[in-house]
Amino acid sequence: MSKQEVILCEDLESSLKRAIDNCPHDRLFILTDDHTHHLCLSQLAGLSVLKDAVEITIGAEDVHKTLETLASVWQVLSEKGATRHSLLINLGGGMVTDLGGFAAATFKRGIAYINIPTTLLAMVDASVGGKTGINFNGLKNEIGAFAPAASVLIETEFLRTLDAHNFFSGYAEMLKHGLISNTSHWAELLAFDTEKMDYGYLKKLVGHSVQVKEDIVKQDPFEHGIRKALNLGHTVGHAFESLALAENRPVLHGYAVAWGIVCELYLSHLKAGFPKDKMRQTILFIKDNYGAFPFDCKQYDRLYKFMQHDKKNNAGVINFTLLKEIGDISINQTTDKDTIFEMFDFYRECMGM
Ligand SMILES: NC(=O)c1ccc[n+]([C@@H]2O[C@H](COP(=O)([O-])OP(=O)(O)OC[C@H]3O[C@@H](n4cnc5c(N)ncnc54)[C@H](O)[C@@H]3O)[C@@H](O)[C@H]2O)c1
Ligand SMILES: [Zn+2]
User: Could you give the count of Cα atoms lying within 13 Å of 45 in the half-sphere of its Cβ?
Assistant: First the structure.
């Protein structure tokens, strides 16, 4: 996978101009969803580099991350004369960067694209690392391709209009990056005052966070080994997400990951000796900011089955990424069913259920 340039912008216009100049093209397209068209593209109005760009707008949220929406993007590209040498800019959250990235990866066997993520989750996670795709047949990210953006331009000023739920959803991935990297990054994340948002400082944190993801993706772009570190919190988190969906009480991905981190830190403590004080501090932060996902012991079996059927697990073997310490990662860890049920007991007890 070719290298992807990730830039924490000081001045979006000049970074964008440079990124576009690095991708010689005949036609320029810019993809947004209904919300980012209104909230984010409007902030770029008047930029001379975008004056000839053809705008493509799709419905917002994951319900639109579909084959139909993808086809509508291909349709506009085709009708407006896009060629192999055209360039697509994706301006939006992870839904837009995933779907737009896949549209670019497949149109005429692949055209260049630039991501400008506008949610916290997309800045630190979705827009970086080359995974693109759509949901299909009721399954998340069932169809997709590895196809890195030519550039990812991060402008944290876009976060000013993001609601608190989506902010915390992205922040959970940042917490994960703190846990898999180093104690000082983890500590600065726990100390950040999310009530009195200092956007200047947030930008610094976002810069650190995206660096963690980039470093890991660089070492293992196709997820054969160390990239699995990024799954911390996700083995249990995906099961929470699936249960929540099945019970018609959907939760944002990052919330499920935060609750998954609670469980997987406990497992890390039990099986790998992760220090109790750091586990407690992280759990306290999660409890304070994310509340709890309630379930009772009658649902343990169902959660266990969701974990067995997760696409990241093979033949019913449930794989965890565990930590011996902050930044000391053990991938491909397994455990028995009793221990997993004990982990659910721990979660319910410490989250006050
Ligand atoms: N490719 C990857 O490696 C990867 C990693 C993690 C997640 N993802 C994918 O990312 C998607 C989730 O991303 P997301 O959380 O960004 O969701 P999203 O793109 O659906 O955005 C969430 C909501 O915020 C709105 N929004 C976007 N920017 C805004 C802004 N600046 N101000 C106000 N509202 C804004 C969107 O219109 C949407 O309504 C999922 O489809 C997931 O599968 C991909
Ligand atoms: Zn995630």
Answer: 7
Dihedral-angle region of residue 46 (phi above 0 means left; psi in -120 to 50 means alpha; beta otherwise): left
CA distance 31 to 41: 9
- SS3 labels along 329-343: EEEEECCCHHHHHHH
DSSP-derived pairing of the beta strands 5-8 and 151-154 = parallel
Which residues touch 341 (CB under 8 Å, ≥6 apart)?
297, 300, 304
- What is the pLDDT at residue 353? 83
Half-sphere exposure of 160 (CA within 13 A, CB side): 9
Ligand 1 is surrounded, with C-beta below 6 A, by 33, 35-36, 39-40, 60-62, 65, 92-96, 98, 118-119, 121-122, 125-126, 129, 131, 140-141, 158, 161-162, 166, 169
The CA distance from 83 to 169, in Å, is 37
For 251, phi and psi rounded to 5 degrees? -125, 155
- DSSP-assigned states of every residue in 105-122: HHGGG--EEEEEE-SHHI
**pLDDT over 70 at 50, yes or no:** yes
The answer to whether 82 and 111 have CB atoms below 8 angstroms apart is yes
Residue of minimum CA distance from atom 42 in ligand 1: 94
Given this model, what pLDDT does residue 1 score? 58
Computed over every residue of the chain, the mean pLDDT equals 96
Give yes or no for a contact between 210 and 154, defined as CB atoms under 8 angstroms apart.
yes
Let me know: does 330 contact 319? Beta carbons within 8 Å: no
**Residue 138 Cα to ligand 1 middle (Å):** 18
Whole-angstrom Cα distance, residue 331 to residue 328? Answer: 10
How deeply is 214 buried, as exposed, middle or buried, from its count of CB atoms within 10 A (0-12, 13-18, 19+)? middle
Distance CA 192, CA 94 (A): 24
Alpha carbon nearest to ligand 1 atom 35, residue: 162
Model pTM score: 0.97
Ligand 1: which residue has its CA nearest to atom 37? 35
- Separation of alpha carbons 191 and 142, rounded Å: 37
- 192: its two tokens: 């950040």
At residue 2, the pLDDT reads 59
